Each structure stands twice: as structure tokens, then as C-alpha cells.
């Protein structure tokens, strides 16, 4: 991070300065346990903890100054604000303006984190690139990523998550992207946004912060995004199937659980790629990254090198081979679209395929219906065994699989019940997809099977 004075920080967030404005901070922290010498501490008020209670601890650890929603009796310089979270975003927005770099903003119902990593892999071939770490894509995580930009940075890839209207609007005005990527519009968070049309509206908030000459890179295989063709200028569409799109893929081959090959067709020519990932959704993500690379001036060889250097993140289609099974640990999160993508992958493989599935959260009034449809889809694509573990929604999933004609269907209310029956359910050499929303903690099942 480029150092800032407290005067500059107070001006950025409209706060009232107490003490010396010449105090210079070299980094910003929201975690009192990790605050170090020379840093500015920003206390966050949460449901369980109030960061203001730990200000004294950060000062003992060497914090140079802090921001506060409360007037404090202290000799240490600080900035008084109405809302520390809002102030954090305002400071990040001002800080981003200090750098003449290209910023990529990315959102979508599914695949945004993997696409973000692919984009960063491509851009890193030519540019010193900062990217969102993990899923730090909210009103706290995005500003903290912006603060990782410094004088050596040439590009930044910033992921934007949301589950309510207005959240991406806030984030994109901090990031001020030159490129806006929307991977798709599914049903994630429909509980809060009402409909897919509502989700589309919320995702399109990313355009509010887009530079006037910026470009929109959109998935031409998503019906909701295709509806933008007639109304959005400077849009580049990518597709797995539609050759009328600006970027598309052909000659798709799935070589193994961990590798696929395909040819990208774009304005710069054809790019043969051997990707260290499998599944049509992964290839779609690669097309989005190609669009960003082209806009950023990379040639076809550089894009190819970047895509082939990509490796998937933790708990995302992570292949684990044990003495008995091949496990696909995709427990990071789940929604109907991402579960279908995982089912497609295992259904195309040789040998017996098993899907161990749990609840998909935040699906609103149609949750049972969405679960049932996923079960039907598992049967349709030919997954050999479907295992549901969880509540009534998961029971609907297994009923959907059974009525859809799946060969084997099992349902357990708890993981403990499943553990007692593992030998009845799984066979040696099975390929096993393990997937549910994060709250279900299905990584515990992965660890049990791994051992």
C-alpha cells in the first residue's frame, strides 16, 4: 500500500480529525489481532463483536492511528466518522484514484471466483496483477483488496459479491472498473431479490461504476444476459455454442477430471488451449478471461499461456485421489446452476459416478422445487448414485432423482447416518462429487472419505 497521511484519510471519508494530520499510515487493518506497527485500524461493528472494544489492543501493537464512530479520550490521532464501514469504502475509492491502472470488476451468480482467478492468470503473463484473495468480495473485502495496490501494480481484478440490491452499486463505485464481467444470472439469492429479473438488475449495478469508455464482457449462453444485447453498448459476448458471439469455443474435449482441451475463436484468431480443469463451465470461464485479455492488449500466445497456467482454488472441483475413491471436493458453495455443472462433469466420466449432495441455501419460496429439479437433472445426465444428506429440501432432491429414474438413491438426515452406511453406498473406484452450500460444512464428508 502507498502510505497516506491522516489528513488525506480524513478528507477521503469526510471525517473529523483529532490530533496530528501528519501521521502517516502504511497499511489499513480491520482485524485487531493482526494490526501491526504503522497501520491504521478501522473497527468494524458486527453482530457478535464491536471492533471499537479492541482499539487499545491495536495501539499497544503499534497502530499509528485509528478511525472511530465514537469520540475517544486518547492522545493518539484518529478520525471520527458516522460509519466506519462506509468510511473504509470511501477511503478505498479515493485510494484507487491515485493509480492509473486497468481494473477488472467481476460478478455473477456462479463462477465469479474461478473466473477472477483465470483472468488474473491471463493478465499476470504481461502485467503485475493484484486480485481479490479467496472470496473477499464484499463491502469490507473489496476495499481491503484495493489497498493491496501499490506503485508496482499494473492491473487489478476485483470480485464483487452481493445478496441484496445496492451492494454491487456500492462496490463498483469504489473499484471504478475499466472492464465489467458478468458470468451469468442464476437463482442464487433469489430469496432476497425476488426473481431472476431482480438478480439481473442487481448484477447490472456493476455498470454504474464502469468508466465511460469501458467494456462489458457478458456470457452469451445466459438467457438473461443475452437480453442486454439490444440495450448495452461496448459489450463483448462469449459462448460455448453460439458462433455469432464475439468469442466462442469449438473442438471441446474432456480428457480427464483434471484436464480439457478446446479451441477459442476470437477476433485475434484461434487459440488452442489445454486447460487444467474439466467441465463446460470451466471453459466458459476461460472465454471470459480471453475477452479481458484481448481488451488488455495480450496476444493469442500470452492468453494461451495464462489459461494453461491456471489452477483451480481450494474446495472448487478439487480432485483428491484416495486408495478407494476419486473425490471431487466442491464444497465451497452450491446453487442449482453450479450443482448441475458438477453433475455434468462426473456423468461424462467412465466408471461409476456418485453425487453426495446437501442443501442449497438462499433459494426462497421455490427452494423445494429447485432441489427437486436438481435431483431430476442428476438422473437425466446419468449419475449412477445420488446421496442426499440434510433437511426436507434435500429429501426433495432425492425424490426428484428417484422419480427421474436414477439407478441408486439414498437419503440421510445427518452426516452421522451417512457415515454408518458408507460401505453400503460407495464402492471401490467410485468417482464422488461432494457438494452443498457452505453452511452445510460438507468438507467434513470429504475429510472422512479421504481418511
Pick out its properties:
UDP-N-acetylmuramoyl-L-alanine:D-glutamate ligase; Udp-n-acetylmuramoylalanyl-d-glutamate--2,6- Diaminopimelate Ligase, Chain: A, domain 1; Protein-Tyrosine Phosphatase, Chain A; 6-stranded mixed beta sheet; alpha/beta
Characterise the protein shown here:
It is a single chain. The chain has helices at residues 6-13, 55-60, 84-96, 112-123, 141-146, 167-175, 190-193, 196-203, 223-226, 280-295, 300-309, 336-347, 367-381, 392-403, 415-420, 422-425, 443-450; strands at residues 4-5, 16-18, 24-25, 27-29, 39-41, 65-68, 78-80, 102-107, 129-131, 155-159, 179-182, 215-219, 235-239, 247-256, 259-266, 269-275, 318-321, 326-329, 353-357, 385-389, 408-412, 431-435. The chain is an alpha/beta fold and 451 residues long. The protein has 3 domains: 4-82, MurE/MurF, N-terminal domain (Udp-n-acetylmuramoylalanyl-d-glutamate--2,6- Diaminopimelate Ligase, Chain: A, domain 1, 3-Layer(aba) Sandwich); 99-309, UDP-N-acetylmuramoyl-L-alanine:D-glutamate ligase (3-Layer(aba) Sandwich); 318-450, Alpha-Beta Complex (Protein-Tyrosine Phosphatase, Chain A), CATH 3.90.190.20. The strands form 4 sheets. A 9-stranded mixed β-sheet has the order 9-10-8-11-12-13-14-15-16, sandwiched between helices. A 6-stranded mixed β-sheet has the order 17-18-22-19-20-21, with helices on both faces. Helix 5 links the parallel strand 9 and strand 10. Helix 3 (84-96) packs parallel to helix 6 (167-175) and helix 13 runs parallel beside helix 14 (392-403).
Amino acid at each position: 500500500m502507498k502510505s497516506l497521511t491522516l489528513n488525506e484519510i480524513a478528507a477521503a471519508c469526510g471525517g473529523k480529525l483529532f490530533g496530528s494530520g501528519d501521521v502517516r499510515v502504511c497499511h489499513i487493518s480491520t482485524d485487531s489481532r493482526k494490526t501491526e506497527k504503522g497501520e491504521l485500524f478501522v473497527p468494524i461493528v458486527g453482530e457478535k463483536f464491536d471492533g471499537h472494544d479492541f482499539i487499545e489492543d491495536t495501539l499497544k501493537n503499534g497502530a499509528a492511528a485509528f478511525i472511530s464512530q465514537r469520540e475517544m479520550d486518547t492522545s493518539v490521532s484518529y478520525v471520527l466518522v458516522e460509519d466506519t464501514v462506509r468510511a473504509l469504502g470511501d477511503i478505498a475509492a479515493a485510494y484507487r484514484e491515485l493509480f492509473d491502472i486497468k481494473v477488472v470488476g467481476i460478478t455473477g451468480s456462479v463462477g465469479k471466483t474461478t473466473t477472477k482467478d483465470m483472468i488474473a492468470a491471463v493478465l499476470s503473463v504481461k502485467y503485475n496483477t493484484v486480485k481479490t484473495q479467496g472470496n473477499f468480495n464484499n463491502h469490507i473485502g473489496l476495499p481491503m483488496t484495493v489497498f493491496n495496490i501499490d506503485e508496482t501494480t499494473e492491473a487489478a481484478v476485483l470480485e464483487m459479491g452481493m445478496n441484496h440490491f445496492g451492494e454491487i452499486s456500492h462496490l463498483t463505485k469504489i473499484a471504478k472498473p475499466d472492464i465489467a464481467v458478468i458470468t451469468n444470472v442464476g437463482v442464487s439469492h433469489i430469496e432476497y431479490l425476488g426473481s431472476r429479473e431482480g438478480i439481473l438488475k442487481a448484477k447490472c449495478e456493476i455498470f454504474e461504476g464502469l468508466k465511460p469508455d469501458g467494456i462489458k464482457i457478458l456470457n452469451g449462453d445466459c438467457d438473461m444476459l443475452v437480453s442486454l444485447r439490444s440495450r448495452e453498448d461496448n459489450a463483448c459476448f462469449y459462448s460455448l455454442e453460439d458462433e455469432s458471439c464475439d468469442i466462442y469455443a469449438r473442438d471441446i474435449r474432456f480428457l480427464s477430471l483434471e484436464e480439457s482441451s478446446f479451441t477459442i475463436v476470437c477476433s485475434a484468431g484461434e487459440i488452442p488451449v489445454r486447460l487444467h480443469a474439466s467441465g463446460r463451465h470451466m471453459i466458459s470461464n476461460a472465454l471470459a478471461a480471453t475477452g479481458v485479455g484481448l481488451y488488455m492488449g495480450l496476444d493469442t500466445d500470452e492468453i494461451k499461456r495464462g489459461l494453461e497456467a491456471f489452477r483451480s482454488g481450494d474446495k472448487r472441483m478439487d480432485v483428491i485421489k484416495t486408495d478407494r475413491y476419486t473425490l471431487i471436493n466442491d464444497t465451497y458453495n452450491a446453487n442449482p446452476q453450479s450443482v448441475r455443472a458438477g453433475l455434468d462433469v462426473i456423468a461424462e466420466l467412465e466408471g461409476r459416478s456418485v453425487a453426495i449432495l446437501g442443501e442449497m441455501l438462499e433459494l426462497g419460496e421455490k427452494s423445494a422445487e429447485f432441489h427437486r429439479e436438481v435431483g431430476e437433472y442428476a438422473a437425466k445426465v446419468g449419475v449412477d448414485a445420488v446421496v442426499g444428506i440434510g433437511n426436507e429440501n434435500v429429501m426433495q432432491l432425492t425424490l426428484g432423482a428417484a422419480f427421474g429414474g436414477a439407478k441408486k438413491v439414498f437419503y440421510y438426515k445427518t452426516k452421522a447416518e451417512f457415515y454408518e452406511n458408507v460401505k453400503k453406498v460407495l464402492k471401490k473406484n467410485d468417482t464422488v462429487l461432494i457438494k452443498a452450500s457452505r453452511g452445510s460444512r460438507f468438507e467434513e464428508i470429504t475429510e472422512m472419505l479421504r481418511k
